[in-house]
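The methods section describes the discrete structure representation at length, but only in general terms. Each protein is reduced to its one-letter sequence and a matching series of backbone shape codes. I believe one specimen quoted in the main text would settle the matter. An entry of this sort, consisting of the sequence and the corresponding backbone structure tokens, reads as follows.
***
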Amino acid sequence: MALTVEDGTVVASADSYISLANAKTYHTAHDDPTDWTSASDAEKESALKYSTSTLDGAFDWDGQITSATQVLAWPRADCSDREGRTPADNVIPQQVKDAQCELAVVHLGTVLTSTYDRDGMVASEQAGPVKIEYQDGAPGEATWPYILRLLNGLALRRSSVAIDIERA
């Protein structure tokens, strides 16, 4: 099933921020990861769809959507990146497209919809001589440091949002 790409004009039924052709160009310029190059076009399109929904679900974006009818988090108004640049209301920032491409590769190697059985609560696991022990406060879900750097300023990871509480 072909991708329906959001181009900044609020495309009905959009399910990706980047086309397969542009994602291929991105990965060619970024060393063609094996998980990407070994996948079929259908698998790549599926990974791009999952990475779009993961971006939209995992991050709180700066600004606000431009239309009540849009299905994706972008395009957005009144947002800026870490350098203070404000993309036009009808533009999907390149950082978002790059992050989508990177997450698509992650999905091809480890399905983004995987569940985590440890739920962040395991203090120690041992199987023979191999032992894993998680530090206090270790996240119970996947983290993507490179994705966070790409999106710095445009978004906050939902699990990383802190709330200040003041006592009256």
